[in-house]
Amino acid sequence: MTDDDILTGFVLEGRCLTFEELCAAGALEQDWLLRHIEEGLFPAPGGTRSEWRFSALGLARARRMRSLERDFEAVPELAALVADMLEELDALRARLRVAGLE
Amino acid sequence: MEYRDYYGTLGVPREATIDEIKKAYRKLARKYHPDVSKEPDAEARMREVNEAYAVLSDAEKRAAYDELGRGYRPGQEFRPPPGWDAGFEFSGPGASGAEAADFSDFFAELFGRMRGAPAGEFRMRGEDHHAKILLELEDAYSGAVRQVTLRAPKMDDQGRVALATRTLNVKIPKGVHAGQIIRLAGQGGPGMGSARAGDLLLEVQIRPHGRYRADGRDLHVTLPVAPWEAALGAVVPVDVPDGQLQVRIPAGAQSGRVLRVRGRGIPGDPPGNLLLEIQVVLPEAATAKAKELYETMARELAFDPRRET
Description:
The structure holds two protein chains of two kinds.
Chain A (H helix, E strand, L loop, with lengths): L5 E3 L1 E3 L6 H7 L4 H9 L17 H17 L3 H23 L4
Chain B lengths: L5 H5 L7 H15 L9 H15 L2 H11 L27 H4 L4 H8 L16 E7 L1 H6 L1 E12 L5 E12 L8 E4 L15 E7 L5 E4 L2 E8 L1 H6 L1 E7 L2 E7 L8 E4 L12 E7 L7 H13 L9
Parallel strand pairs in B: 1-5, 7-11
Antiparallel strand pairs in B: 2-3, 4-5, 6-7, 8-9, 10-11
């Protein structure tokens, strides 16, 4: 392996993805995400659409909601509720891990 | 390539109705959904279930699968007749590129070769792709070069799309931590015409470590100390992923107290902290000498751990 074979990327942190990038990265339809933002099911970032920035957490949430809707034919409101609960579960599990209890 | 028994995966007979297939899928999706499942291989099973459902829930794909799979047993070597798909017209969008990349070679062979847009004067920037990269904690401390293997749809000269596996060597910069994204320009989907390729976005995950627990850039670790080190104070060596530190234990430290060593967590700007949780460990009273020491303490220290303060 030579140095030429090694790819170097940019590290993105925090709210770093544009609306289009989030959709592309999550294989989401733009209309789908827009509808969910407008209906308050997906946390709306401030500003106009071109100013919106999303974090890796937002990407995970969008993918999760999409798969819940697809796998279970869940109505969007229910998928959002389940996503909320799963995020809370993730946060609790992370606290357990930090406390050495898991 | 192994033949896959989609009916077996969903646990339905070959003559099952679409409603029965849907019902069986829902049940399995609840059982194996990686977010909630307690099954150890949930993610892999969910992929199999999704793949089976993608085929059996689609009348056209199911018909093609039934036709080609006649006489095959699960696990048997499968070879589709050349040009088999000529007789089938798949009208739907099929599985999207991202979804199909999760599916088996068997699926890719049968249904992955959906006709893409013709390559011509049409220009469009390639899609951004997304994947996860699982790193060791040590990688975050010292940086590393890691291999990522991706399966992505690729278009050939005739404009046909097939799944291709490719391996990338990616430089992991020092200081990465969970929740970050590494963007590799031009490593996503190819552009159409002369437009540039999309980017590849790698979502960083850190594999849970037996000893250290990462929380962003902060690192938590349990520090076992002897009773006299805790009572009298001491300087003790602590192993960290990039070497060893000398840490001062303040006199009178109790179990559960957390010592913060500034800036010695995962490197970065600013670097994280190292958080040492003190755990006082008692020597066993296994010898006569040890027993005597404990008895002396019991006799001479007026100590009641249950006294309310």
